[in-house]
Specification:
4 copies of one chain form a homotetramer. Chain A has helices at 11-34, 41-48, 52-58, 62-82, 93-113, 116-123, 129-156, 165-185, 189-205. By secondary structure, chain A is an all-alpha fold. In chain A, helix 8 packs antiparallel against helix 9. Chain B binds a DNA duplex through residues 12, 15-16, 19, 40-42, 50-54, 56-57, 61-62.
Chain lengths: 211, 211, 211, 211
DNA sequence: CATGAATGAGCCTTCATTCAT
DNA sequence: TATGAATGAAGGCTCATTCAT
């Protein structure tokens, strides 16, 4: 139909989109506050002031909504992890370090901004095996991205030859996970920044005396 | 009959202990396979071939059993993390590196041995807030232990002066978490060993060229 | 449509009230027929032809419904006991005797009408200590009312000076209880009326020859 | 068999009888303290210090024991109601009044002695319809006894001609029930005695001025 | 005979989902 | 389209009863 052409969302359609997003937000808040299993569809609807029957006009079931909520959480974190380093691939050690710093800052910012994000990621694997797989998939996505950067660094020569890029990428992701874990309990910006700095140091200098 | 007084648990008592442990194991298997919430008491009992009423002779409720299961999992991991480094506190960089290696090996061994261990740790925080707190507490316990070692290293002089021991301990624990996460999907011994080696390298040399 | 604002309960609302009352009635019948403990929520629901989940939309739990059932039973009996003697306080022995007669008639009428009422009162104390207390409280309420009337009679002079109004009120309530007890097995109106007459005789003449 | 002849209960047999009685007593205490439904077989056995399996060597099931407990309670009350008036049937108004007094005293004594007796009678009808019938049967037994005495009084001439002996017996039993009801809450001897006196007064003089 | 471990029927209650209004 | 009343599958838990030791 002609009038459906991209640029012209009906008023009704926009409202629909807004309500849909509202449900996702409400669900996020409920899940973050009480956990997935302790949250009822009625809770999500009530918090939003809609009837809980309405929920099912926008999402197929409880599992469906949590899928969307987690996807959104992951998307936000991925955005923080990737947005700032998109422009160009670093070609010197300084560039790379700067990029790691930018990522650390972005992560610190987003985690400090909303500590429920890491909490969600922490608790999501308990929902069911599939959700667990999704979270692990998210970790792996981030890890593969990291691995590519490391590989590029080795190829380009600013990272150590012989570096086990795959294994090291796991370790680096682990440190990012640590950042998220600690954000659950200590979301203060300063703490996050210290953690980011320590990770940087560890990566670029190790913990020993500079040799 | 002449019983040796002290260490003589009745046959019945031994059976009781065995059944109790059997229930814990069965529960562990169910939780690992289907997740806490999808597991019914009946599942645990049936898998063991006992009536589900029997379960309640040994554990107060579903929450009680998962507590025991998780405690056992944590105990195993803590044992791996701490047993080998108990003897003496490292006083040289070589000692410390050796200890880190031993821990890595022990961890690799136990995770390879039973990949459901890390899966359980991964999924436990989704059970409820208290369990979440317990897991975070476990992480924090390990972290504080690491922090003490780092502090000792700095004091003794074999670690860099000015090292942010607290933040760094978070990062190191993150890498241990990474080990566990990867063990869920790649429990092969070789992979675990590579990961342990990479962590060591990262800690003691960083990822850059040795300067 | 021109609704008269105030007393216009929606159709839905009226249905709701009706269903609620239906559940109370159904529960009353079940409890009366099988006793509280032998009655399952499913019985109450099935007898009414509704799903047993529906029950919980109207009452919090099994205890809640029996509370309502008993309250209703008590209310009916209290109404019988008090409605007819409300108008004015009797000031002569004839007035008082007439009032006692009215109460007796009203009680006979209601007990004959539904013999499950006294049965419920009889069995309620076995539900739990709180219910027991409620029933005893109901007896005591009636007793204190009776006591007030006796005291008024003594003050006014148409009852014997020196009458132990408190103890006598207990005795009179006991005779009302007897009426209820016998109604369980002999609900026929005639029997009830004879009993009421005998109680009157006992109160006003004793069992001996008029002296 | 010869040696079974009445007078020679084996030691073992006596022990058995004692344990049996012990179980009844223990059950009575449990039922009185927590109610029938809240009492488990295990409670009864534990209070007595025996294994709960042993219970079933003496009583068929939970229903069986409560039957015995209630029977014993009823027997005690019947004894109080009938023991003292057994010797001879009263033939004058004074004799009868004296007898009523003796009964009242005996009742007061036993209720004051153990207020759990009336409580048991009060709560027993809630156990199940059969128990309810038993209690009603007990009331009726006492009532018929009373009725016989009243009839004798009328025949003999010391009670009013035309007295509705059946209905009046209901009323009198009601007052005895009142005594039991009030004993649940006020077991003090003095209160019981006042109540007995009031009942006597009511029976023999009515509540009005002596005419 | 005493014991208590084992059992499973049975019940209350929750809540995701459906559907008539 | 929004609603919320109705539903019943599902599951945790209790406890009377049995029976091997």
């Amino acid at each position: 139909m002609m009038w459906t052409m991209s640029a012209a969302p009906t008023l009704a359609e926009r409202r629909k989109q807004e309500l849909r997003q509202g449900i996702i937000d409400s669900a996020f808040e409920c899940f973050a506050a009480q956990g997935y299993h302790a949250t009822g569809i009625a809770d999500i609807a009530t918090r939003l002031g809609i009837g809980h029957g309405t929920f099912y006009r926008y999402f197929a079931n409880k599992r469906d909504i949590v899928e969307h909520v987690v996807d959104e959480v992951i998307a936000k974190i991925i955005a923080a992890l990737s947005a700032d380093n998109a422009p160009e691939v670093p070609d010197t050690i300084a560039d790379y370090r700067a990029q790691v710093e930018r990522i650390g800052d972005a992560l610190a910012r987003i985690l400090t901004d909303d500590p429920r994000l890491p909490r969600m990621v922490l608790e999501a694997p308990g929902i069911d095996p599939q959700m667990s797989a999704k979270i692990l998939g998210f970790y792996d996505l981030a890890r593969r991205l990291t691995e590519r950067y490391l590989a590029h660094g080795v190829e380009t020569g600013y990272l150590r030859e012989g570096l086990d890029v795959e294994a090291t990428s796991h370790a680096i992701i682990g440190m990012i996970v640590a950042t998220m874990l600690s954000a659950v309990q200590q979301p203060e910006a300063q703490h996050q920044r210290r953690l980011a700095a320590a990770i940087q140091s560890l990566m670029f200098e190790g913990i020993t005396h500079e040799h």
